[in-house]
Specification:
heterodimer, A: about 120 residues, alpha+beta, CPE0013-like fold, 2 domains, 5-stranded mixed β-sheet, 3-stranded antiparallel β-sheet, 2 helices, 10 strands, about 35% strand, elongated, B: about 300 residues, alpha/beta, FAD/NAD(P)-binding domain, 5-stranded parallel β-sheet, 21 strands
């Protein structure tokens, strides 16, 4: 089975052609770098996305703290992740990279702060 | 920040960095999505992370004085600059000035969408600031006008926040945004993108109730009988950016009225000696990494000017 997809690894947006048997990739073409091939494989087997969003704060300089998952998570878990994020309130100062939620959703990634934020 | 740091590296002793906001970083602070830094840092970062890398370097540098909540109100052709900061009006005479004033958004009024004037119509970048920094969700059902990167990024952002994003309407037959954004922002969330369509009317008394959409031909004329309506309470307008160059104009620099950018022989230059412009104020970029690259050049060019080089 042949599939085409657009690589989202970088702004070039290569057009990839993938030959696959179900979720097993046989060949990839159209990619200008190795990351394209890896993306095509991952996207065919189990799509992953990095989630970035912001969480509420209390008593800090800004009302919201931008956060991200430290690595990509399964695409179908994005909405579950957002539901979890809505329950978080950060009330202590943080530095960039500070872990807000370890092992987020029980996965092997953390939810981390994307900027420093001090007390109001 | 990139220009200030590059000027310092090129030997400039005393740099004053004026920032209107209470934090450094500008629009990067509200661009919480990843996609920054792949070229400059060889690593994918979010906007705030990308800004933070520069903030650290600026804060470590004793030769850069940062003045926050400082709003430049006047610039002359001889580089006299006035700025307001809390409690004071300051005046400085600089030997070189680099303007990194960015852009403003093109608004609904500038693309003339007819209809009533209800609440619920926002420039997409303003909505981005509301959602990402203030924690306000602008509505429950949204239509996005224009498929530039900000519109695409906001489609995903609203979808993640539980807003029903009904459609993205693009008058051209291609997206002005990056292909990767069409894929990861629209296709991932099943959001339809209508090419060669335009919003012909916004309806609603107090709040947006629906929009009329019509298909257009290659000359962008409405195709009779192709119209349909989409119910929504929110319209985000993402139809481009306009460089913000009031200070340059005030100083008497020669401007291109069509793009609102300085007339220049080379990147970052203006018609005024010792006055430079960089980043989105000079021309609208699609990647922050290229803004950094060219702004570093602006810093080095200003340093060369101060050292007496002919430009």
């Amino acid at each position: 089975m042949k599939r085409t997809m657009t690589c989202i690894e970088c702004p070039q947006g290569c057009r990839l052609e993938i030959e696959a048997d179900g979720t097993r990739v046989i060949s990839v073409s159209g990619n200008k770098c190795a990351r394209g091939a890896a993306y095509a494989r991952q996207e065919t087997e189990a799509p992953l996305r990095t989630l970035s969003t912001s969480v509420l704060t209390r008593g800090l300089e800004l009302k919201m703290l931008p956060v991200r998952t430290s690595g990509p998570i399964p695409k179908q878990k994005l909405f579950e992740a957002m539901a979890e994020v809505r329950r978080i309130v950060v009330s202590s100062p943080v530095e960039t990279g500070a872990v807000i939620v370890p092992a987020f959703l029980g996965l092997a990634v953390d939810l981390v702060a994307c900027r420093p934020l001090g007390k109001k | 920040m990139a220009a200030a740091l590059a000027a310092r590296r090129a030997g400039v002793k005393d740099v004053l960095l004026l920032e209107r906001d209470q934090h450094l970083g500008g629009v990067l602070n509200q661009c919480i999505h990843p996609g920054f830094g792949l070229h400059h840092f060889k690593q994918e970062l979010t906007g705030p992370e990308y800004a933070d890398r520069f903030v650290r370097l600026v804060q470590e540098d004793r030769g850069i004085e940062v003045s926050l909540r400082s709003f430049a109100v006047r610039l002359t052709g001889t580089r006299e600059l006035s700025y307001l900061r809390p409690g004071a009006l300051e005046e400085v005479k600089a030997r070189a000035v680099i303007l990194a004033t960015g852009c403003r958004e093109r608004t609904r009024e500038m693309i003339t969408i007819p209809g009533s004037r209800p609440a619920g119509v926002y420039p997409a970048g303003l909505a981005q600031k509301m959602v990402n920094m203030e924690g306000w969700i602008p509505g429950r059902q949204a239509v996005i006008v224009g498929s530039g990167d900000i519109g695409l990024i906001m489609a995903r952002r609203l979808a993640l926040e539980g807003v029903a994003v009904k459609a993205v309407i693009e008058i051209q037959n291609v997206s002005r945004g990056l292909v990767r954004n069409v894929v990861q922002c629209l296709e991932d969330f099943g959001i339809p993108l209508y090419f060669r369509h335009r919003v012909s009317r916004i309806h609603g008394r107090d709040r947006v109730e629906k929009v009329s959409v019509v298909q257009v031909d290659e000359e962008l004329r409405d195709i009779p009988g192709s119209g349909f309506e989409i119910g929504c309470d929110t319209v985000l307008v993402s139809v481009g950016l306009i460089p913000e160059n009031e200070l340059l104009e005030m100083a008497g620099a020669e401007m291109d009225g069509r793009t609102n950018t300085p007339v220049a022989k080379e990147v970052n230059l203006t018609s005024l000696p010792g006055v430079f412009a960089c980043g989105n104020a000079f021309k609208v970029y699609d990647l922050a990494d290229w803004v950094t690259r060219d702004s570093e050049l602006a810093g080095r060019t200003a340093a060369a000017y101060l050292a007496g080089a002919a430009l």
